[in-house]
Each structure stands twice: as C-alpha cells, then as structure tokens.
Amino acid sequence: MSNPASPEARPVNEPNESFKDLLSQFEQSRSRTPEEAGKGREGTVIAVTVDSVLVDIGFKTEGILPLTAFQSTGETAKAGDKVVVSIKGRDPGGYYQLTRGKIERPKDWASLQKAFAEKTTIMGTVTAVVKGGLSVDVGVRAFMPASRSGARDAAEMEKLVEQEIRCRITKLDEAEEDLVVDRRVVAEEEERAMKDRRYSEITEGATVHGTVRSLTDYGAFIDIGEVDALLHVSDISRSRVNKPADVLSVGQEVEVKVIKIDPGKRRISVGMKQLEPDPWVSVAVKYKTGERARGTVTRVLDFGAFVELEPGIEGLIHISEMSWAKKVRTPSDLVKPGETVEAVILGVSAGERRISLGLKQTLGDPWADVVQKFAVGSVIEGPVTSLTKFGAFVQVSEGVEGMIHISDISAEKRINHPQDMLKVGQSVKAQVLEVDTGRRRLKLGIKQLVPTSIEEYIAERQEGNVVSGRVMQISGEQARVELGEGIQGICRISERSAMEKTLVEAKADLTSLSSMLQAHWKRGTGTGGSRPEAVRAGQIRSFRITKLDPAAKKIELELS
Questions:
Q1: DSSP letter string over 121-169?
Q2: DSSP conformation class of 382
Q3: Beta strand spans in 146-247 (E)
Q4: Strand, helix or coil at 110?
C-alpha cells in the first residue's frame, strides 16, 4: 500500500500548525475512511502450520497468529476461514504479530480526559507517517511527535505504521480536537522497570549468559538481559590481554561471572577469567626456589620486567637481578616484550601472588670462585670502570670488580683525587690485598707493586747474616731496630731487667745511621769476661737475621 506522506518528503512541523490541520491534510490523502483505521480487522486464514496460523489482513505482508489462540477455545483453523484480529507488532521476520479480537481503547473524550488526568497508559494504532511525526488512532485521531516516537530515524518510523503501541496522552484539547500522545515516555518507564527487576534478580557470584554489545580500550560492555555489565580488560582472561578486541568481537556470546553490583550507580562488573581455575593455587608446588623457568616478557618498566610463566602467572625480574657484569640503566637494554627468556626462581609468595625471578643467575655467580682465581697477593690487570673521590673501581673479570683505595694508588706522593693518577678505561695492574665474598668486595692496590728499599734489603741478605742497627724502641720483650733508612726489624730480648730500664726513646740527634755505627766501632766494645751491655734505646748493636719474609716484608732479628 502506497503512502503519500513518505518520510523523505516530511518537513519539520511548524510550531503554529495544529494537529487538527495536519490531520485534515492526512485524511484527505488517505484512501480509506478514518473509521476503518485502528479497529479489529477481518482477515483470511491462508495456511496453518504446526504452531501458527498465517492470515491475510489486506497488507503486503501477512500476519501470524499462534495456533494456541484457537486451541484455547476449542476451535480449529483452516485455510479460507475468516477471523477478526488486531495488530500488536512485527516479528524479526517482518510478519505482523496478531491477536484475536479487538484491543480495548477509549471510546469517547471523557475516557480520554480521565486517562490524561491520571497519566495512565493507553493503546493505539499507528495509522500513518505525517508531517512532523505519526498519526495514531486511540479511539480518536491523535498526533505523536517524531521525537516522542522512540524511533531513531525515518526508516524506523515507517516500521511503526499499522502497529499497535502503548502511549500516554501529553496534551488534550477537546474543543480543538487536538490530542498529542507520547510513546517514548512509556518505553523509558518500561525499560527502567525491566532494569530494576533485572538488578533485583542478579546476585554477586552468579554465572550469567551475555552478548558482547560494544568494545572499548579498557573493556567490553556485555548485554546480560535488559542491562549492560562491564567486563574490564583485566578480567577477560588469566593471560594478559592488551586490547579486548584481540579476544572478543561484537555480537559474541559469552559466559560471565557477576563480580560486583553497585545499585546506587547502577553498575554491574563481570569477569570471564573468574570462571577459569585459579593457577595460583598450585604455584607453590609447581615453582620451587632455585629452579629454572622459561617465560615470555609481557611488560618492561623502569624497575624491571614481567615474565609470563603460564597463563595467569607472572614473575618479576628486578633490574638488580638482570646482570652481573654491569649496572643496567634500563631493563629495555636487555629484554624486550614478546621475548622468551630463561630465569631462576628467587622466591615464591602465592598469598601475595608474587614470584621473584633472576636473569643473571642463569649465567652462574662470578663470585663463586673468586677466592681461588684471585688469591691475596696475586696480581690482576683490568680497565678502570669508574672513579670516586675515595678510590677507583677496576673490572677484574666478567661480573667482578675490585676497588683501589686512594691511599693504595701511589707510595711516592700524596694525591687528592684518583683522577690525578688514573682515568676511566685505563688498563692497570694491581695486587689483590683482600677478598670478601660475602660482601662481594675485592680490595686492590697499585703501590704495592712498586719495589721498596726493604725489598731490596731482603733480596741482598740471607737468614744468619749479622748486621748492625740502632735500637729505636723497646716494648715488652721486643725491640724495634732500624737497619737502614726506611728499613726496620724486630728483635726478641731475654734480658727483662735491661729492657725495663730502656722504655724511653733515645733523644740523641743522630742524623745518620752510618755515622753512629762509625762512632760506636771507634769506641770499641769490652772483651774478656765483661758483663754484656744492657739493651737500651739509641744503642748501636749487632744483630743476627733469624727470618726474612719477602711477602710480608718482615725481618726478625736476635742479639749477636
């Protein structure tokens, strides 16, 4: 059936035009009389199926009645039968949905006045698309503005023609025969009522079926029946999901678990991963400290990298656990997202859902054999890696650094800063002075490799040689003896009475050991049965070397 008042030709309704004028224009263009519209119409049964009856109602498209409409009254239906029906809508296939008989509508203006005053919902039939909206039969002609029809566009308005609708009277002027109805307000109230009922039916922890309605960067909105629920990206899967669109699509049907309901804000949060087994339950059994594990780098941050060991299980490689050899500026220098790595499990806390991993431990601890490789007294060579005001750091081997204190750089002169003698990248030789594996410290010295006068003195003498020296100080049963400039030895003394008398340092101004020795030998020493002279500070005496220790640079003596 053609419709002269097509949506394409429909202009916006001028404010001063009354519905009475619009209705008059419309009725003049209609082929059927106003009395025919909106009444229960007679149709002809054209076919009967297992559960429905197909009826010709005079439109291009047939209508469908459920077979139960006849069975409930004990009637039968066959092709050719006449039946009175009313249209209540259309099904997804485009067929008119019918009911038997006529839906009650207001019969007069008095009943319309009552419905208007009480704001009750009434039934009506959309008869046509008119200028600015729709014509509706509610017992009398009524006008429904396009904005209050609930239709989104002209095509949807066309689909409302010949359908029965629920509406509410928003304007009534009997004198002008001006009646305006609103379908949208009824639909919104019904939608709110359905949502309220749905909110009351849903409980936290319940599993519900839903359909993906839309996708965003932070999640997906799921239609769970009358209401939408938010499925956050972090609740989609145990595995890390970067974007919901990577695993979901609009229209996809899903099972979700209700996580939280906020009636005040009318929000429902749901999750998919909550329906999967929790992998953290068995983490303590599967992952042991000290074992190795392989995984994929998922995120790289300033403080470390997260590695997925299995769906839902991530471990953290802290930046401090990435390399033995060097200070790592940023984790991205060593690992990249998507890269597969092998790491050692350093700690597992299932309760806190945390696993600590180490990357450098897979390469072995370079400090494990430092004591054997770099014994005290041995000489190493390596580049200077950094300078501080208190010393210099030298790379001894891969992952092992030693420190040369400023006081151990030079024996010849006092330096104010290591940079006075060294620079970063310079290769140096140094002697190992101390090894502390517990604190991972290696103490080195450069000046210890420079020959000294005591080394030359020891190299030129042997144990048993008799030498001359000056007693510098006596303490207990030991005397410190000067054998030459910068060369000292230790002598044990058995004459306690003599030592007790010589605890004070000699104050003689002896500028040269050689001059003292010459003066002593010119005076001569007693011979025969004279009593040995008591040892005292300042004396020039003869001593026999009992021990030479080149490594420790020690000389032990006895009185000759």
A1: -EEEEEEEEETTEEEEESSSEEEEEGGGS--SSHHHHHHHTT-EEEEEE
A2: E
A3: 164-173, 178-182, 207-215, 219-223, 228-232
A4: helix
Query: What DSSP letter does each residue of 340-355 carry, written as one string?
Result: EEEEEEEEEETTTTEE
Kindly report the CA angle at 328 between 323 and 329, in degrees rounded to 5?
A: 170
Is 373 buried (19+), middle (13-18) or exposed (0-12) by CB count in 10 A? middle
pLDDT tens per residue across span 112-136: 889 899 998 888 899 888 888 999 9
Query: 112 and 139 in contact (C-beta within 8 Å)?
Result: yes
The SS3 call for residue 511 is coil
Alpha carbons 348 and 289: distance in angstroms, whole number:
7
| CA 234 – CA 276 distance, rounded (Å) | 14
* 473 CB burial (10 A radius; 0-12, 13-18, 19+): middle
User: What CA–CA distance (Å, rounded) separates 311 from 246?
Assistant: 16
- C-alpha 543/C-alpha 545 separation (Å) is 7
Interstrand relation of 253-262 and 207-215 (parallel, antiparallel or unpaired): antiparallel
Beta strands in 398-495 (DSSP E): 400-405, 427-436, 441-445, 466-475, 478-484, 487-492
Residue 556 forms beta bridges with which residues?
490, 547
Query: Residue 28 above 80 pLDDT?
Result: no
- Angle, CA 86 vertex, CA 176 and CA 119 arms, to 5°: 45
Euclidean distance between CA atoms 314 and 535, whole angstroms: 78
Read off the pLDDT of each residue in 215-221 and give the average, rounded to a whole number.
92
Among 18-27, 57-66, 303-312, 427-436, the range scoring the smallest mean pLDDT is 18-27
The answer to whether residues 249 and 264 touch, using CB atoms and an 8 Å cutoff, is: no
Take residue 123 and report the two structure tokens written for it.
Answer: 């039934």
155: closest CA among 6, 14, 313?
A: 6
| DSSP 8-state symbol, 281 | G
